[in-house]
Hints:
With 150 residues, the chain is mainly α. It has 6 helices and no strands.
Amino acid sequence: MTNKTKEERSFLAPSRWILILLVMLLFGLGLAIRLYDITDLPLDFHPTRQLFSALKARGMYYQTLPDIPEWQRDMALNQWKTKVTVEPPLLEILAVATYRFTGENLWVARIYSIIFWLAGGVFLFSLAKELTSRDGALAALAFYLFLPYG
Length: 150
């Protein structure tokens, strides 16, 4: 392990203020891309996964509602229970908790997804900066924020 005793040189961000500005710009643009048409149906990015998550969240939500018709509850529970679970339903549980306050809005889960995605960008930037340089970290962050599967 070596200590970084002198300030590393950077082509893209020669000063700390420019680095902060570029990171904020990248996060802002990445956030704007994700927020665009957030209230549309989840058919824009990996629609099968998004629709399965929406069905799971609806089933969990309808399970707790006392004032819906029994047939509607049964339908939602069947759609939820018949789908294969491939990952922990963390996002769905958060969405259901929020549905109790806001009603059933599909965009709520997208907000949580965006928050987790941005947090991942913070950690990726920190890791890439340690492993490479400021320029490498900025490139990794831009790659992560602007690719569809980022």
